[in-house]
Write a structure and sequence with these properties.
The protein has 103 residues and is an alpha+beta fold. It is built from 2 helices and 4 strands, in the order E-E-H-H-E-E. The chain has one domain. The model has no long low-confidence stretch (mean pLDDT 90).
């Protein structure tokens, strides 16, 4: 069985992110956990939006088959904050890039 990790990269910020995410910021999810000592904090709201994608994605299900990305190993999600007019925050779009680990 193949093993994967997912590199989560900030693709775009619309409005103002409360955690200060900027395009290019990233963190990693390995197997079934987030390793400690990441460079950036992980927003629980954004992470909650990713969870339904992360579990099958880490087990080898294609992002394309799930309808969340243009290729098997690339998915896109966004945090649930709608941003201005509704909140003082903003929406962050994340690219989830699956990377195969050695057996």
């Amino acid at each position: 069985m193949k093993k994967y990790r997912v590199r989560v990269v900030v693709e775009e910020v619309r409005g103002r992110c409360a955690l200060g995410y900027r395009p290019g910021d990233s963190f990693v999810v390995e197997k079934y956990y987030v390793p400690p000592m990441q460079d950036k904090p992980i927003c629980i709201h954004a992470f909650a939006a990713m969870l339904t994608i992360l579990s099958p994605f880490l087990k080898g299900v294609s992002a394309k088959d799930m309808g969340v990305g243009p290729r098997d190993d690339t998915a896109y999600v966004q945090c649930p904050d709608p941003g201005p007019r509704y909140t003082c925050g903003g929406t962050v779009v994340f690219r989830l890039r699956r990377e195969e680990l050695g057996e």
